[in-house]
Amino acid sequence: MLDFQHVRKAWNMVDLVHFFGTSTMLDFRQKYFEESLRSYCDSYNNDLTILEPENKHQKLSLESLKKEFDEAYPLGFVYGLLQAHV
User: pLDDT tens-digit profile of 33-68?
Assistant: First the structure.
């Protein structure tokens, strides 16, 4: 099933920040944040290889993912607040 209630084009890091901020508890983030980012990075690189095998772009490193996540955090946080159903 596809749900097109909220379709948009955006920086994937904003979605990642939004996910962590609205779908996980603090204790989970404290224990599994690094492992979760590593899993995301591995999956992203694997999917990129499958979808674009001829693509010669450099794969996403965990360090660059963390940097982008930190840069996207303020925007993702605000987006999460705007989407909150309080």
Answer: 999 999 999 998 998 888 887 776 778 899 999 999
Closest Cα to residue 44, out of 13, 19, 6? 13
Distance CA 44, CA 16 (A): 12
3-state secondary structure of 19: helix
Phi-psi region of 46 (alpha: psi -120 to 50; beta: other; left: phi over 0): alpha
| Helix%, strand%, coil% for the chain, nearest 5 | 70, 0, 30
| Separation CA 39–CA 59 (nearest Å) | 14
The larger pLDDT score, comparing residue 4 to residue 43, is at: 43
pTM: 0.73
Smallest CA-to-CA distance from 48 within 35, 39, 57, 61 is with 57
